[in-house]
């Protein structure tokens, strides 16, 4: 477990839903302190990769190592206790519970002192002041952007070592999406948080990320720094010009 | 909505009143057309075989007037309880009074409950009814953990009630154990069955879960009927010992409580004792539930009801969370069952039919899932209200059914539809159910 080894290392990972193979041998590394973007078209297996890291669906082959420990096949709830946090696709906040309760749910997993919890909460409110304004409101009454902030805030409450975000800009107005991306950048620069971001909005994600991976049909086809990938003609053609989402 | 609606109030209230009058007039006209032939003209075969008829315009007028008045009342009620953006005809003073009454209702109800045996000391019927209501309050609170908090639709709750009752009955009649030893045992055994039911249904949700739990309730009942050597089958178990006050029986004999205290024996003593016993047990259920809601496990139950995938992503072990919800709910059902057995002195499988499960579930749904006060009010309305309508004979079910339909139209989330958050930062503020989409829960 030297300092140069990656925080998360995935080797030859395969996963399937029934007979349909969604991941066909994925290799991916995330170093501590990095933002890594995973881009690709619908159905490429991006979300499946994230969920497989979390143990659902189970990996059929390959290995997932977190901080030098093999976590392949570890139950989902125990992976979360290793302080790998996830903001799942579609936000999935708890609609009938208040914002404060939603955030507390994120903190319940890990053992932390009251002072630590208050400090993280303060950090979340600094990043997303809107959440503080609406702290006693029900999650379901928030706007889409606020719900996304809440989902990220909830994930942050466990003081994660690795934060995984699945399509944080999904269904958000461009201005709100930018706020979310800015917050992720701030978290990375100021708190040294390691982030894996899965996105269809390739332009945004690659500008934000240190490194990026491109996924096609369950395989990583390209990787490189964010800037490099943005310059690649095949990326521009597939995700930025032709396939760019309004 | 507050400021803008208040500014517009004078004009809109007048139009609101006009709207109500218009609606009532239309309803009255419809009633007039409908009933003019049905009620207004009465025909009968005369003595010569010919048709004779006579008019009953008085009755017709009374019915049309009733429809007119009823329509106004219904429309007023609807505006009281209707969505927030509707024009409100009710003056703010009345609304404030209503909200004050809403806050005082729980303590007032509790004080009144404590005083019931004092007020109605010589009315055995009311005391018995109160004990019955409290039993259902306790069952409702117990099922509320499973259905209201954890969102696991359980149609077989009566199984745990039966397990508790039979546990106490068998332990007491076979081994002579006292009520106070058997009570925790009955709870533990019911919780054990709760876990046993929980395991196979871990993957199920919603309708599928409901069907399996329904079957489970029936299985328990059928086992009780058929396992004659142990349970006595359809004959049930009789001669179940009465509860004692920590070993002192409430009987007329030498060592009875009355004799020891030097007061004259009265059978009412035991009723009053049973009343306070079930009250204490129900309040314990309530207290434990309220405490649990503020702990991570209670929050996890509620989160599980909202979104199972998100729960797992947050590191909640959904397996143990579901099983603890089943076990906790079952345990309270078991306690209530033990109380039922000791109160009746006789139990048979007939007491544990699906109808009981449905009744308890109706109490939870009617009360507003997850609301403690709502469940208590619903139990009072369902059990007490049913008795109240006894004078209506064959119309009782009709009135009762109509009341429930109307209630579900106006209060689709139950009597108390909002849930109070358990985590606060600055101020305590209940969030109106009006703001939340229906169907979540």
Number of helices of chain A: 10
- Alpha-beta content class of chain A: alpha/beta
What is the rounded distance between the termini of chain B? 26 Å
Order of helices and strands of chain A: EEEHEEHEHHHHEHEHEEHH
Shape of chain A: globular
The biggest beta sheet of chain B is recorded as:
2 strands, antiparallel
The main sheet of chain A orders its strands as: 6-7-8-3-9-10
- How far the N terminus sits from the C terminus of chain A, by CA atoms, comes to 44 Å
Describe the structure.
- The complex is a heterodimer of chains A (246) and B (441).
- Chain A has 246 residues and is of the alpha/beta class.
- Chain A is 39% helix and 26% strand.
- In chain A, a hairpin with a 2-residue loop joins strand 1 and strand 2 (20-30).
- Chain B is mainly α.
- Helices cover 68% and strands 4% of the residues of chain B.
- Chain B has helices at 2-7, 9-40, 57-81, 92-119, 124-149, 158-175, 179-198, 206-226, 228-231, 257-261, 268-294, 296-306, 308-313, 318-344, 354-367, 372-388, 396-410, and strands at 41-45, 51-55, 237-238, 244-245, 248-249, 346-347.
- Chain B has a two-stranded antiparallel ribbon with strand order 1-2. A two-stranded antiparallel ribbon of chain B has the order 3-6.
- In chain B, 36% of the residues are buried.
- Classes of the chains: A alpha/beta (246), B mainly alpha (441).
- The A-B interface holds A 54, 56, 75-81, 86, 88, 92-98, 100-101, 103-106, 108-110, 135-138, 140-141, 154, 158 and B 296, 299-300, 302-303, 305-307, 309-310, 312-318, 419, 421-427, 429, 431, 435-437, 440-441.
